[in-house]
From TrEMBL:
Keywords: Cell membrane, Membrane, Transmembrane, Transmembrane helix. Belongs to the 4-toluene sulfonate uptake permease (TSUP) (TC 2.A.102) family. Its main location: membrane. This is Probable membrane transporter protein. Pfam families: TauE (PF01925).
């Protein structure tokens, strides 16, 4: 229970400050820290991720930045992918799934080290407005890909959503973070429904401690996000993700070698 609270603080901080990254640690924390199997850790992580995203979004400034047509198309497009990803995850052995998760974590860490740039073109009109209709196909395609990752690994996909919103639509960093939280919440809830069969296995005590802590910390972190250097926070978190990825990769590789 104590570990669940500690991990909830970390995930809430990342989601509230960066709009991404926190969920990538939720499954390893539950598997290696709390001792849950992947079949239980993934749906538990999805509840935690949804809670932290909703918490990070619950501020007036963040809500005003949301481009609802973009966020809803991105999120809804991920629902079929989340269902398919969940079905694929149930068919894979745990060690193979964890090894794939370690690879994904490494990609996320590298992406966080590199940071992101704001784009003024992409789907913007000459007067600076966003052309939602012109960006619809690319937004839907990106949403579908994120949905697969959500269902397969129990991640919200913010590390993909934030740069995608910036590159595809030219959103500013605060806008991309606010919109990503809507997408993460939709993806996580749809992924949770795809894992509904595992509901009986959930440890409600751990779930509530983890999710409540992540949500509360995310709300608090969102209020201070504009006062902290995002690049410093992002790099520090990237090192943590990379370290956990190494541990997960080694552990799963050993499990495969001794199987």
């Amino acid at each position: 229970m104590i570990l669940a609270v500690v991990f909830g603080v970390v995930i809430g901080l990342s989601t509230g400050l960066l709009g991404a990254g926190g969920s990538i640690l939720a499954v390893p924390a539950l598997v290696y820290g709390v001792g849950q199997p992947m079949s239980t850790a993934v749906p538990t992580a999805l509840v935690v991720v949804a809670a932290s995203a909703i918490g990070g979004l619950c501020s007036r400034n963040r809500l005003q930045l949301v481009q609802w047509p973009v966020a809803l198309v991105f999120g809804v497009a991920g629902i079929p992918g989340a269902i398919g990803g969940a079905a694929l995850g149930r068919s894979l052995p745990q060690d193979w799934l964890l090894l794939g998760f370690a690879v994904l974590m490494t990609v996320v860490a590298v992406r966080m080290f590199r940071g992101g740039k704001e784009h003024s073109g992409a789907c913007r009109t000459p007067d600076g407005e966003i052309d939602h209709q012109r960006c619809l196909p690319r937004t839907a395609a990106a949403g579908s890909g994120v949905g697969v990752l959500t269902g397969l690994f129990g991640v919200g996909g913010g590390f993909v959503v934030v740069p995608a919103l910036s590159i595809l639509l030219g959103l500013t960093a605060p806008q991309a973070i606010a919109n990503s939280m809507v997408v993460i919440a939709i993806n996580s809830i749809s992924g949770l429904f795809a894992h509904a069969g595992a509901a009986a296995q959930l440890d409600i005590g751990v779930l509530l401690a983890f999710a409540a802590t992540a949500m509360l910390v995310s709300v608090a972190a969102a209020r201070f996000s504009e006062r902290l250097p995002a690049s410093t926070v992002r790099r520090a978190f990237a090192w943590a993700v990379l370290a956990v990825a190494a541990g997960v990769g080694i552990s799963s590789a050993i499990g495969l070698a001794t199987a």
